[in-house]
Amino acid sequence: MIGQGLATTLTIAIIGYACALFVGTVIAIFRVSPIPPLRALGAAWVTVACNIPTLCLMILAAFAAPRAGVPLSLLAAAVTAIVFSASGFVCETVRSGINSVSKGQIEAARALGMPFGLIIGTVVLPQALARTIQPLVNIFISCLIGSSLAAAIGVPELTNVTQQLNLRYAQAVVTFLTSGLTYLAIAFLATKLGGLLERRVAGREVRA
Prior knowledge:
Mean pLDDT: 89
Radius of gyration: 20 Å
């Protein structure tokens, strides 16, 4: 049961993070766009995404969305909430990376006649993402921890399974300690992988 719960937890966390990384990066581009409506949309997205609790988003996605004619499974509702919530934090992280890129490089690209989209895609964004690896890893860990909230809407992920095992065997210390150490191990591994990737990227920049 713990193995099945862990698989569901990883599904929520990985899919949610991957989608949040894409959506958040797009919103970050909106926020630095020269088009005012896009900047306003990006600012509104971040304000809403970063200031509504993920649990509230899960409940709304699971129970309010079907009433509005958007049927979602409980698993899809959990992933959707993670995506929306995490995308706001990804946006701000990527935007900080974009702002750290030298303006001289951007001006040089403009002088060569490159359009905004090409400058962002080939000059700014690769550097921005390389400089924000560890903060983005921290957001993945937040997605992992946030996935435990899916237990509240009945998704059989790791925390939900742990609760079921505790009710069955009345061994709260053993079951929740096992669950907690599992989350800790995954977070530790993600941090190590992020650090390794960060060092490799830094090494390439030095050689370049």
